[in-house]
Structure formats: C-alpha cells, structure tokens
Write a structure and sequence with these properties.
Structural class: alpha+beta
Number of helices: 3
Distance between the termini: 116 Å
Number of strands: 5
Helix content: 55-70%
Mean pLDDT: 80
Shape: rod-shaped
Number of domains: 1
Strand order of the largest sheet: 1-4-5
Strand content: 15-25%
Length: 184
C-alpha cells in the first residue's frame, strides 16, 4: 500500500514538473503575442490619435486666424491722408493697407506653429455707385464684406503609411466692414 501510494505521488510530481515546464514556455509565447499586439495594434492607434490631434489643432488655429484676420479687416481704419472718393484710391491705397493689417494679424495668430500656403482677402466686386458720368466709391468699403481664406497643407505621419499623404486644410471667415474713416 505504501508502495502504491509512493508511485502515485511520484506520478503527481512528474505531472507537476511537466506543467511548470510548459508554463515557462507559454510565458515566452505570451511575450511574443504581447509584442505583436503592441507593434500592430497599440502603436498605430496611438500614432493615429496623436496625428489626429495635431490635425485638429491646426484646423482650429487656421479657423481662429481667419476669424481674427476678418475682424482686423472689419475694424480697420485707414491712417493716411483723407482719400478722394475714387476707385483708384480705394484699390491702390486703402485695400492694400487693409490687406497688410489682415496679413500681419493672421501671421501673428497662425505662423508660430502652422505654416500658411495661401492667404486670400476678398471684397464684393463693385462698391461704387454709377449715376450717369458720375461715380462715387465707398473708399472705406463701409458695410461691405471682407472675407479671409487661409490654406495649409498638413503632412500626416499615419497618412504616409496608409497612403493619404497630404491633407489640405482651409478656413475662411467673413465679416461686415464697420463704418469709419481715417484714424483719428
């Protein structure tokens, strides 16, 4: 009886040793599985979240820059001499000065972290009133709309891997130009 019991215990020991050895081999397999899951699932998802966050940040920055540029153009007051009321003064003096202020404002808002590929400032086509041979132009464009549009090309890290590459971001804002004249 003792002998039978000793053989059963010896058999249990052998089974326990085999299961411990198999657990050691399974630990190596688990490590390989974890490395593969990390490499092909966790890292791409993490980089996708980071890249998406950068893309969203740039879009918000462009939107804010366009809005601030349109606001700068809407409240702009010409600081030169009192202009005559003709189209030439409006198109060659006041509009370029307003566009310069808009460009400076947009660059101050956007440029530190986001590059600007294109900045467009547009106004309505014809702010002049024609009556017979007489033409009067609203040289300050009071009541007209100013539209600022900014374009940026984002190079996506994840997009290069999956084939998206570059994403064009565009933001625009339109505001009504406030009445005004030369700055006091």
């Amino acid at each position: 009886m003792k002998r039978e019991r000793a053989q059963k215990e010896k058999g249990k020991r052998i089974v326990i040793r085999k299961s411990v050895i198999s657990l050691v081999h399974e630990a190596g397999q688990s490590l390989v599985e974890f490395a593969l899951v990390t490499l092909f699932v966790i890292l791409p998802v993490t980089f996708g979240i980071i890249d998406g966050s950068i893309l969203f940040y740039k879009w918000v920055t462009l939107t804010n820059g366009a809005r601030e540029g349109a606001r700068a153009g809407a409240i702009y007051h010409y600081d030169g001499n009192e202009p005559s009321g003709d189209r030439d003064t409006m198109e060659n003096v006041i509009d370029p000065a307003r566009k310069n202020v808009i460009t400076q404002t947009v660059e101050a808002m956007v440029k530190p972290l986001v590059s600007i590929q294109d900045l467009q400032v547009t106004y309505p086509d014809n702010p002049c009133i024609q009556q017979g041979s007489w033409e009067f132009c609203n040289v300050y464009r009071s009541g007209d709309l100013v539209t600022v549009a900014i374009t940026h090309t984002h190079t996506s890290i994840v997009g290069l891997v999956i084939g998206l590459g570059k994403i064009n971001l565009t933001a625009s804002a339109t505001m009504r130009i406030e009445p005004g004249g030369p700055a006091p």
